[in-house]
Design brief:
The chain is of the alpha+beta class. The protein has four helices and eight strands. The chain has one domain. The strands form three sheets. It has a four-stranded mixed beta sheet with strand order 3-1-6-7. Strands 2-8 form a two-stranded antiparallel sheet. Strands 4-5 form a two-stranded antiparallel ribbon. A hairpin with a 6-residue loop joins strand 4 and strand 5.
Length: about 120
Amino acid sequence: MTTEAPEFPTYWSGRKWDAPVTDDAVEMPEDFARRVLNGSVTCDVCTEPMLYGENVLLTPYMQSHIECSIRSVLGDVAHLEGRCICSGGESHPLPGEEEQTMRQSALAAVQWMVDHGRGRFRD
């Protein structure tokens, strides 16, 4: 007799990103989100605290800001614009890019995607 581990849902809070990873995600109940997203849980990508009101994704394998998850897969603004060396560019950072934290870089990358019609939140 095989005992399977229970399935844990993927939860989101804040705004839901329009991508297959969130298709079956469950919105965190507000009281749960307020208790969990109080600064004591950190993002696995940027290591900054996750706070109530931010865009958050909790999966069985990772807890992160939605923007940080996206940035970890798709790259920073320089990569999205083809300015990085892996895209054949010469890696010319724009003013302020080199000083950005991972979280700031993630927010900038997602904003760039939204501004250029390459992704969107489900509002």
